[in-house]
Amino acid sequence: MEMRSKFTQGTFLLLSSLVSLSYSYSTDEDSSQLMSRRLLNQASDMSIQQYLIPHNIIREERRLPPLKWSKKLAKFASWWAHKRQADCALIHSNSDYGENLFWGSGKDWKPGDAVAAWAEEKDYYDHKKNTCTKNKDCLHYTQMIWKDSLKIGCAKVVCRSGDTLIACNYDPHGNVIGQKPF
């Protein structure tokens, strides 16, 4: 419920900004271009927050430092997601970054849906044994809460099939064998 409240607050702020900007009409072309750039930046910032807020809420539960957005990681995530756009396959990039991938049927999936799916794996992680429940995945969750991961960058594409692929990359990477996430 708290996550939904933060999303609602973010949406309200974005809409308020858009309304206030729409009232500042100008015939000057430079002002018009500036306004367009501001609107694009606000939309981009809103998209970033849709990844950061739910990640950081989950990290806050473990008293971990919040992730910071990395344009470099977002660019890499976008590059990899676009490479997978033809087949929408959940194939990892095998880069030096940590990586979570999400696939959803159809195009209406949001960043928070991917983060929520990864967070649900919490139930399958045994911190004492540092293992996942047999035949269950928990490595998306452990990457999200890896204490040494401090930066994140994500991207979303709609694949040729019409399905959605979301990629998030983390730096430094987590899921180091023999180490616990926190």
Features:
182 residues, alpha+beta, Pathogenesis-related Protein p14a, four-stranded mixed sheet, two-stranded antiparallel sheet, 5 helices, 46% helix, 16% strand, disordered N terminus, Pathogenesis-related protein 1, pathogenesis-related protein
Give, in order, the helices and strands: HHEHEHEEHEE
The average pLDDT value, as a whole number, equals 85
Task: Provide the CATH superfamily.
Answer: CAP
Rg to the nearest angstrom? 18 Å
**Uncertain segments of ≥5 residues (pLDDT<50)?**
1-29
What does this structure look like?
This protein is of the alpha+beta class and 182 residues long. It has one domain: 3-Layer(aba) Sandwich (Pathogenesis-related Protein p14a). Helices cover 46% and strands 16% of the residues. The chain has a four-stranded mixed sheet, with helices on both faces. Strands 3-4 form a two-stranded antiparallel ribbon. Helix 1 (2-23) runs antiparallel to helix 2 and helix 2 packs parallel to helix 4 (111-119). The longest helix is centred in the first third of the chain and has 33 residues, at 29-61. Mean pLDDT is 85; it is low at 1-29.
